[in-house]
Amino acid sequence: MSMQPGSTMKPISIHIPQALQAFTVPLGSFLEKNTQYDRLVCSAFVFAPATCRRHDTHRSSKATTPPRLLLLRRSSTDTAFPSLWEVPGGSIDKDDPSILHGLAREVFEETGLRLTRFVRLVGEAIKWTTAEVEGIANKSNDIKWLKFSFEIEVAEVRGASETDQDVEKYLRSLPVDLDPLEHQGYAWVTEKEVRAFYEEGLRMAIVSKEQAGKMLEAFESRKV
């Protein structure tokens, strides 16, 4: 399937597994069937090295480097969660050809990385309610949100595992291109670093403990 998240991108082929075909519909179609929700948000878990597959013959038997997850640091002037850390993602728009197109667009806009494969849905959807948002008509004046999280692969991150020393150099070379209006920095973090925040509130200030928990779910999914 060919998808082009942004007009400045060359179209690339993106693999969508059968299990995620339900997300190949436009936002309007999805909300028509799920009338209890008003807005849909998706987030992306990008790992380096890319997803380890049981039958990947290109993997080295000596690979011991722990995977790193891409986090973005929100702008210091952001009205919501300034300077906190999160994974790429955002709201799906009515003009996006499908839900998955919308996430590919968000990833490219926020990082410059080109999505090539949807790996899996990570855990259960997250639901919450907020006060009325401009441009959304709702009789109760409450906006009901739904958020799905996906592990993805991008063209710029290869799957071959490296030594610790090589990985650090490799990660620094990756072309993560941030939108300065949204994010001020990025980092590739280990499961240990995320768990330290989740269990003890240490190190990186992640947007919420709930999001940190979802990150840990993504790390666990790769071990199956």
Textual characterization of the structure:
With 224 residues, the chain is α+β, with helices and mostly antiparallel strands. Helices cover 24% and strands 26% of the residues. The protein has helices at 27-33, 99-111, 164-173, 191-200, 209-221, and strands spanning 2-3, 12-13, 39-48, 68-74, 85-86, 89-91, 115-121, 126-131, 142-154, 183-189. The strands form two sheets. Strands 3, 4, 5, 6, 7, 8, 9 and 10 form an eight-stranded mixed sheet that branches. Strand 1 (2-3) and strand 2 (12-13) form a beta hairpin. Helix 4 (191-200) runs antiparallel to helix 5. The longest helix has 13 residues, at 99-111. The two termini are 27 Å apart. The model is unreliable at 54-62 (pLDDT under 50).
**Count of individual beta strands:** 10
Question: What does the overall shape look like?
Answer: globular
* Number of helices, counting only DSSP H or I runs of 4 residues or more: 5
Q: State the end-to-end CA separation.
A: 27 Å
H and E string: EEHEEEEHEEEHEHH
Main β sheet profile: 8 strands, mixed
Helix content: 10-25%
Tell me the strand percentage band: 25-35%
Low-confidence stretches: 54-62
Q: Measured on Cα atoms, how large is the radius of gyration?
A: 18 Å
For the residues shown, what is the average pLDDT?
A: 85
